[in-house]
Each structure stands twice: as structure tokens, then as C-alpha cells.
């Protein structure tokens, strides 16, 4: 058994990286380690051969981020309440992880990472063959970063997508960046171990995640849209965010923006990445999802919530909801039980 070791004079939360590693066959020691570095309460239960339990974690804390490689050696089940203070990404390096969060089930593997928002219970089925990259980002750090990339205030918690592709595109680059940072910070003499450089790497990880993960502020990652949007587009966005349940038409939104329909549509495609009505539908779906996730199943029905958010055709709503979240709306509501 190898106990935790800390390298460097800094403390968690500073710009000086703090490196901690642990290898143990003791379940309680592994639980204590994870609760201290990640979340408490956090329930970890082996469901595979207990004799094969072999917890290995190599973790670096750097200001608002905690990055590590973690594996258990045997099949385990993990459950946790809302993360509250952080967003979290798990990206398997080997094997497959089954995740359930806010009514959505994601099968994460080396091609797809799973994303957790600060609210909603989490359940993980983690096979012994799965070793993964774990990235915890403080809630305020990610929200500030995304807010800075847009010309509008974002909601909190961010309505992020449940997963993203890491086999190609921005996701692959972001995972490579995180792995390189972790490798650099493990060594005592790497360039990233210097406080000024470590702070820059830290900011790259946070900003890279903000530009990679899916959010309702645009179909394309925020960084590809440019930090500023025309005033006409901003006017339409402000109206939709103020009263998303209203039965707007594209003509209504163009009138608010003071331009023609075609000009508004072209502006949205260029600066938001989708049409005005597609954006409005996504905004409403995320509102329904958030309300169903936090509502007592006995206190409201799916149809009530859908109507409240402007959906009048329940069949089309249910299909759009399943397409976006991977489950029917009733599953999200029951997931609260």
C-alpha cells in the first residue's frame, strides 16, 4: 500500500500545484481520499471481486481545478448528491463507464466524456477495466469563463450538455491538454510546475472546457462564435431569455430586433450557430429539464411543466426532449424520486 504524497509548498486553491497520489487495497482509505479531494458525501461500494480492489489515483490540485487519473481495479458503484460547488468531467482512458445524472444515462468511453452539473444526484457503474481522467472545475471559475466569452450573463448552474466527443475536434484537444498538464505537474522540474506557468495552464483548461462542452448559447462552441454579437441578435436573445414561454414567431423576433426576417436568420446562423426558433426550442427544453429535475414527482405533471414553458403540442415536445436528453421527460421527473 502506498500512502498519499504531496509535492510542492503550495496549498489547494493557490496557483502552486499540489500533487497527491494514493495506491491502496483498503476501501475505507480510498473513500476517505476521494471525499477529501472531491465531494462529501460520496458513496463508493465494490460490487465486483473485493479481492481485486486496487485503487490508484494520481491527482493534482491547481487553484480552481483538480485533475487526476483514477481507477479501482474491480467493479464499483458510486453515488453522490448534487456537486453544488463544481462542474465535473470524467473521460475514460480505458473501458466504459455507465453514468446516470439528472435523468440522463451516458455510456462514457475513450471516445466520449460525461459532464456533471452542480445539481442532481449522480450514479456511476464503474468497471474494474475503466481507468479515467477526472477533471473537477470550481463552479464560479467555469461560469465566469463562459460569461466572459459572451455578451450576455449566463444562468447558474450552466445548462451544459450531458457529454461531449473526445475522439475528434475540440474535445480531443482538450483531453490531450489535460493529460499533458497532469504529466507536467507530476514531475518536480517541469515548466508547468512554476507558479506563473501553472496559472496559465490552469486557465487554458478552464477556458478550453468552456469552448468544448455543449451549452444552449450556440450550436458551435462559444470560442468559434466570436465574443461579440450584433445588437440585433442580442435584442432577440434578450427577449427570448426574458419570456421563453411566449409564442414567438420569427417575424415577432425580427420586429423586436428591428430587421427583416432573413437578416435576423443570417445573424443567428453566423453568431449563434442555429436559427432563432431552434435556439428558442432549446432554451425551452433546457428550462423544462431543469424544472423536472428539481420537482417532486407527486407535485406536478410533465404536461403542466411543458405547457408552462410554451410547448403546446405534447407529442412533438416529447420527441424533441428525448432527442436532446436521451430519455423521455417522465424519466427525468421520476429520477427525482
UniProtKB/TrEMBL annotation:
InterPro entries: AraC-bd_2, AraC_XylS_family_regulators, Homeodomain-like_sf, HTH_AraC, HTH_AraC-typ_CS. SMART domains: HTH_ARAC (SM00342). PROSITE patterns: HTH_ARAC_FAMILY_1, HTH_ARAC_FAMILY_2. Keywords: DNA-binding, Transcription, Transcription regulation. Gene3D superfamilies: Homeodomain-like (1.10.10.60). It comes from the Bacteria. Residues 234-335 form the HTH araC/xylS-type domain. Coiled coil: none annotated. GO terms for molecular function: DNA-binding transcription factor activity; sequence-specific DNA binding. It holds the Pfam family AraC_binding_2. This is AraC family transcriptional regulator. It comes from Actinoplanes awajinensis subsp. mycoplanecinus. The lineage of its organism: Bacteria, Bacillati, Actinomycetota, Actinomycetes, Micromonosporales.
Amino acid at each position: 500500500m502506498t500512502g498519499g504524497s504531496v509535492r510542492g509548498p503550495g496549498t489547494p486553491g493557490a496557483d502552486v500545484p499540489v500533487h497527491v497520489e494514493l495506491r491502496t487495497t483498503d476501501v475505507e482509505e480510498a473513500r476517505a481520499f476521494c471525499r477529501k479531494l472531491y465531494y462529501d458525501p460520496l458513496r463508493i461500494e465494490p460490487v465486483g471481486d473485493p479481492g481485486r480492489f486496487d485503487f490508484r489515483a494520481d491527482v493534482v490540485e491547481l487553484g480552481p481545478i483538480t485533475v487526476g487519473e483514477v481507477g479501482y481495479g474491480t467493479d464499483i458503484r458510486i453515488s453522490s448528491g448534487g456537486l453544488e460547488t463544481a462542474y465535473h468531467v470524467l473521460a475514460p482512458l480505458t473501458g466504459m463507464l455507465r453514468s446516470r445524472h439528472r435523468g440522463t444515462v451516458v455510456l462514457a468511453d475513450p471516445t466520449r466524456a460525461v459532464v456533471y452539473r452542480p445539481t442532481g444526484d449522480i450514479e456511476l457503474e464503474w468497471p474494474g477495466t475503466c481507468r479515467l481522467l477526472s477533471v473537477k472545475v470550481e463552479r464560479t471559475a467555469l461560469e465566469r469563463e463562459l460569461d466572459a466569452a459572451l455578451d450576455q450573463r449566463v444562468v447558474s448552474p450552466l445548462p451544459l450538455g450531458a457529454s461531449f466527443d473526445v475522439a475528434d475536434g475540440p474535445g480531443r484537444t482538450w483531453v490531450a491538454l489535460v493529460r499533458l498538464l497532469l504529466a507536467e505537474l507530476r514531475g518536480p522540474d517541469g515548466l508547468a510546475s512554476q507558479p506563473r506557468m501553472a496559472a496559465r495552464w490552469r486557465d487554458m483548461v478552464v477556458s478550453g472546457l468552456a469552448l468544448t462542452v455543449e451549452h444552449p448559447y450556440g450550436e458551435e462552441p462559444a470560442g468559434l462564435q466570436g465574443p461579440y454579437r450584433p445588437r440585433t441578435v442580442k435584442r432577440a436573445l434578450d427577449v427570448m431569455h426574458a419570456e421563453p414561454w411566449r409564442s414567438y414567431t420569427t417575424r415577432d423576433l425580427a420586429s423586436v430586433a428591428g430587421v427583416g426576417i432573413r437578416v435576423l436568420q443570417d445573424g443567428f446562423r453566423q453568431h449563434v450557430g442555429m436559427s432563432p426558433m431552434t435556439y428558442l426550442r432549446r432554451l425551452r427544453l433546457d428550462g423544462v429539464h431543469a424544472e423536472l429535475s428539481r420537482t417532486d414527482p407527486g407535485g406536478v405533471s410533465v404536461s403542466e411543466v411543458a405547457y408552462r414553458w410554451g410547448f403546446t403540442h405534447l407529442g412533438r415536445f416529447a420527441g424533441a426532449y428525448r432527442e436532446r436528453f436521451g430519455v423521455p421527460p417522465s424519466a427525468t421527473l421520476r429520477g427525482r424520486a
